[in-house]
Structures are given as structure tokens and as C-alpha cells.
Amino acid sequence: MPYVLLGVGVAGALLSTKENRGKAMDMFEKIKEKVSNLWGGRKKPDLLEKAGRPDPYDHEDAKMVGEGAQYSVEYYNKEVQQP
Q1: What are the residue ranges spanned by the domains of the chain?
Q2: What is the pLDDT of residues 34-57, one digit of tens each?
């Protein structure tokens, strides 16, 4: 228990200035990114990287593509195949 209190006290002293808080947040983000990459976490691909190479496990993207395909078929049926 004394070590926990000592750690909280040291952290409070270090994070008392705005500059130190900013450094701590930057360090936390870097560590979080490294741990995420280490454990196989995937970063979301940029839209330009993703274009033309759909991920079969991205269900929301597949749903959007399906809805887009339906729109064009309905438009064709309504406009071109009118009796």
C-alpha cells in the first residue's frame, strides 16, 4: 500500500504542469500504438488504400456496396425498362 501512495504522489508531482501532462499524453499514445501493433491490432486503412480492395470481413462496407448496387439496378429498371 505505501508503494501505491508513493506512486500516486510522484505521478501527481510530475503531472502538475501542463507541459509535463502533454509529454505524458504523447508518451501514452506512443505506448498504446506500440502495444496495439504488437498484439496484432490493425489500424483502420486510409480510404485511398482501401479503394478497389474490399475486405470481405468488413460487413459495413459490404452492406454499403450492396445498397449502392441495388440503387443502380432499381434506377435501371425504373428508367430504362419502362413499358
Answers
A1: 2-38, 47-79
A2: 887 777 666 666 666 666 666 777
